[in-house]
Amino acid sequence: MWRAAAVWALRGAPGAGAPRAASGAAAAQLRRRLESELEEIRGAGTWKSERVISSRQGPHLQLAGGGIINFCANNYLGLSSHPEVIRAAVEALEKFGAGLSSVRFICGTQSIHKDLEEKIARFHQREDAILYASCFDANAGIFEALLTPEDAVLSDELNHASIIDGIRLCKANKYRYKHMDMQDLEAKLKEAQKHRLRLVATDGAFSMDGDIAPLREICQLAHKYDALVFIDECHATGFLGPNGRGTDELLGVMDKVTIINSTLGKALGGAAGGYTTGPKPLIDLLRQRSRPYLFSNSLPPAVVGCASKALDLLMESNAIAQSMAAKTQRFRSKMTAAGFTISGKDHPICPVMLGDARLASVMAEDMLNRGIYVIGFSYPVVPKGKARIRVQISAVHSDEDIDRCVEAFTQVGQKHGALP
Predict the structure, then answer these.
(1) How far is it, in rounded angstroms, from Cα 40 to Cα 47?
(2) Contact between 117 and 137 (Cβ < 8 Å)
(3) Cβ pair 412, 406 in contact under 8 A
(4) Label partner for 96 (CA 20 to 30 A): which of 4, 88, 317, 403?
(5) Which residues belong to any copy of the Aminotransferase class I/classII large domain (predicted)?
C-alpha cells in the first residue's frame, strides 16, 4: 500500500499536472500589483529576456535562431569548455558523486574541497581560503561575521550589489565614498577614526564600467588612517596582473590588501562557487559564524574539480592570462575610432556608452539579428541615464570575431542614430 501511496504522491492526484493559482482576495490583489509592475518594466524598455542556448559556453553559440558570436559572457579565459577542465569535472563526479546533501560542518567536506581551498590560498599568496556557493554568498557572509557596531566600513558607491547587500546585513557604521574618489575616501576615513576598526571595501574591477580601482592610493590611505582593505576580484581573478592573480598583483599591492573575495564562476571554469581568502584567523572565524557558509550545501564535486583544474592551468603558465591584453586593445581602439565612447581602460569589460535605455535595448536586439550576442544594461543595474551595451572580450575570441563585432556595431549605431 505504501508504494501505491508514494506513486500517487509523486504523480499527484488526477489533474495535478495543471498549474494552480492561489485563490482569495489577497492573492488576486498581489497578482494585479505584480502584473502592473511588470508592465511598467516593459514600458520603460528595461525588460530582461533570457535567450536559450543549445550549445556549450564559448565564443560561438547556438541559439534557437542559429549560430552567433558571443560577446557577453564572463568566460574571460575560455575555460568554460576547455577539454581538460571538462575532464576534471567528469572525474570528480565519478569519484566523489553528484553532491554532499549536507553543509560543510556536518558531513559535507571532502578532500577535494580542502585541496581547492589550499590551492586558492596558494594562488593568491594568502594564508587560507574558504569556499562558498557563490561570491554573492561570500560577500553576504563576511561583513556581518567580521564587523560589529564598534567598527566602520567604507564602500565605493558603485560597488557590486552583493557587496552592498552584504554591508547592509552587518551592524557596522556605514560610509559611502564617491566612485574611485580618493579625496572623498580620505574625508570619510578621517570621520571614521572614532571607530574601533575601519574596513575599506571596493571592487577590484567594476563590472559595469570596466574601470579598475586605484588600489595603490586606497592602500596608502588605509595605511595612513590605520584601516584594512577588502577587494572583490570577480572581474579580475585569472587575467589581471602578470600571473592573473588580480588587481592587487597588477598594481603591486598584494602585501597591503587584507581580504580578497572572488568567484569560480567566471574566468576559473565558469561553473559556480566563490571564496574568501586572507588571514587564517579570519577564515577560521568565517567557518564558525558566516551564515551563508554554515547554512548552504557544499559545492558539488564536479564544480570543485573543474575550478581546481582551471587553477592548475593558470599556475602552470601565464600565457592564457596574458593573451587578453592585445584582444582587448584591438576592440577598444577600433570602437573608439568608429566614434563610440568606451568606458573603463585596459579591461576586457568594454561598456559602449549610449545613455538611453531604449536605445541600448533596441541596438542590442539589432546586434543579435546580425549574429553578435551582446546585452544592453540600464536602470536599476546601472544609474539612470547611463545605459550601455556591455561587451566582454575573451581569450578565445579571434581577431575576425572582434572585427565582425566592431563592424556590426558601426552599422547598428548609424542605423539608430548613435553614430553620425
Answers:
(1) 9
(2) no
(3) no
(4) 317
(5) 68-409
- What pLDDT, in 10s, does the model give residues 45-66? 678 788 899 999 999 999 887 8
Question: Number of C-alpha atoms within 13 angstroms, CB side, residue 93?
Answer: 10
Strand partners, 275: 131, 262
- Provide the strand spans (E) within 3-112: 60-63, 66-70
Give tens-digit pLDDT for 399-412: 999 999 999 999 99
DSSP assignment string, 395-406: TT--HHHHHHHH
Helix (H, G, I), strand (E, B) or coil at 350: strand
Cα 420 from Cα 414, distance rounded (Å): 6
β-strand pairing of 228-232 with 259-263: parallel
pLDDT digits (tens, 9 = 90+) for 284-343: 999 999 999 999 999 999 999 999 999 999 999 888 888 888 999 999 999 999 999 999
**Can you list the alpha helix ranges (DSSP code H) found in 207-355?**
215-224, 247-250, 280-289, 291-294, 301-316, 319-322, 324-338
* Of 265, 271, 274, nearest in space to 293 by CA: 274
Residue entry with cell 534557437: 64
Contact present, 308 and 88 (Cβ < 8 Å): yes
Count of beta carbons in the 10 Å neighbourhood of residue 315: 14
The pTM assigned to this predicted structure is 0.91
**Which helix (H) or strand (E) covers residue 246, if one does?**
none
The rounded distance, in Å, linking the Cα atoms of 234 and 243 is 16
Estimate the crossing angle of helix 301-316 against helix 111-124, to 10 degrees.
30
| H or E, element range at 181 | none
Residues 80 and 56: beta-carbon distance below 8 Å: yes
Q: In this structure, how many other beta carbons lie within 10 angstroms of the beta carbon of residue 376?
A: 27
Residue 41 pLDDT: 86
φ/ψ of residue 397, rounded to 5: -75, 140
Strand order in the sheet with 387-392: 349-355, 387-392, 375-377
